[in-house]
Write a structure and sequence with these properties.
It holds the Pfam family Glycolytic. It catalyses: beta-D-fructose 1,6-bisphosphate = D-glyceraldehyde 3-phosphate + dihydroxyacetone phosphate. Its EC number is 4.1.2.13. By secondary structure, this protein is of the alpha/beta class. The protein has a single domain, classed as TIM Barrel (Alpha-Beta Barrel). Helix content is 44%, strand content 14%. It contains 13 helices and ten strands. The chain has an eight-stranded parallel beta barrel, surrounded by eight helices. Strand 6, helix 7 and strand 7 form a beta-alpha-beta unit. The longest helix has 21 residues. The protein is globular and about 50 Å long.
């Protein structure tokens, strides 16, 4: 086993992951979850199908222009292409840092109204060092909080903040950049204002716990949800309102030392995630800038359309990869506040033929 890596490597990799104009592909779904995705296009949940799907994404020509990192699941980190090239090597040669999901799921917190904490700390030191040896250079840990009449509770916030900080400390000592993900679910009928209020409490608690555990803030990334009204809320928020609430919340809670805020796309369509990210960056530029890169760590918003096109058909790999690089490109543009459409997820097959320039980054 390798010993603890110096923090300068962790800080350098955090800045590489947060470089402007790039983002992270979150392809770390568990075997069960990716199986549901495969089954939605008529494929069995087998290791061969999971491997083929990941190979289609990771070998997309030109996608390294727009991605700085890719989060992998445990199985995927140790897989290879059909010709035997390890996925970590494929990603590395494209300039994409491999990452690894290190939490192992949620469990109920006794005495709460269905709130949860996250498992995986017990053997994290050994696992994170083994993942570093395998080629991973960053990690992800997801905590989940719910908004309700009396939720999230102070207990749930404190437990999840503490666990996120402990995870971050262990990963940094093992040479991995920790992505700190306090996801606040959009389930419910709460307003945009209520979402912002809860996010401020949660983010502040997480930052306090990071300080308490002496985590190096220059060597982490934050992965939150954008500030959105609840999925069942009668209130509808415009991209401008979402951007204003999100930027205000971050400015109130997240220290400038953190290199990047990499948003998840949960609850948004592929196009909504891009538009909201672009609006957020445009607003930041108009209001004095932001000390952190405002980027993406998208899963479904980068994978759903390529998966539908591919559907296990080898003759569709090129077309699916065209879509994958197109989605990565428009989101990279959104990181710079330069996205102007059209969105590749909205193009028909015939129209996609007119946008082949996405692959090589040619002008559209």
């Amino acid at each position: 086993m390798v010993g603890p890596a110096p923090l300068d490597e962790v800080i350098a990799n955090a800045n590489k992951l947060a470089q402007p104009g790039k983002g992270i592909l979150a392809s770390d779904e568990s075997t069960r979850t990716v199986g549901k995705r495969l089954q939605s296009v008529g494929l069995d949940n087998t290791e061969a199908n999971r491997q083929a799907f990941r190979e289609m994404l990771y070998t997309t020509p030109g996608i390294g222009q727009y991605l700085s990192g890719a989060i992998l699941f445990h199985e995927t980190l140790f897989q290879s292409t059909a010709n035997g090239t390890p996925f970590v090597k494929v990603l590395g040669e494209a300039g994409i840092l491999p990452g690894i999901k290190v939490d192992v799921g949620l469990v109920p917190i006794p005495g709460t109204d269905g709130e949860t904490s996250t498992l995986g700390l017990d053997d994290l030191t050994n696992r994170s060092r083994a993942y570093y040896e395998q080629g991973a250079r960053f990690a992800k840990w997801r905590a989940v909080l719910k908004i309700g009449a009396n939720l999230p509770s102070s207990l749930a916030i404190a437990m999840n903040a503490r666990d996120l900080a402990r995870y971050a400390s262990i990963c940094q000592q093992s040479g991995l950049v920790p992505i700190v993900e306090p996801e606040i679910l959009i389930d419910g009928d709460h307003t945009l204002e209520r979402s912002a209020e809860v996010a401020e409490r949660v983010f502040a608690a997480v930052v306090a716990a990071l300080h308490e555990h002496r985590v190096c803030l220059e060597g982490i990334l934050l992965k939150p949800q954008m500030i959105l009204p609840g999925a069942e809320s009668p209130q509808k928020a415009s991209p401008e309102e979402i951007a204003a609430a999100t930027l205000r919340t971050l400015r109130r809670t997240i220290p400038p030392a953190v290199p990047g805020v990499m948003f998840l796309s949960g609850g948004q369509s592929e196009q909504e995630a891009t538009v909201n990210l672009n609006t957020l960056n445009s607003l930041a530029l108009q209001t004095g800038g932001a000390p952190w890169t405002l980027s993406f760590s998208f899963g479904r918003a980068l994978q759903a359309s390529p998966l539908r096109i591919w559907s296990g058909d080898a003759s569709k790999v090129e077309e699916a990869q065209e879509m994958a690089v197109g989605l990565a490109r428009v989101n990279a543009e959104a990181v710079l506040g330069k996205y102007s459409g059209p969105h590749p997820s909205k193009l028909t097959a015939s129209l996609r033929e007119n946008f082949r320039g996405w692959r090589q980054g040619e002008p559209r």
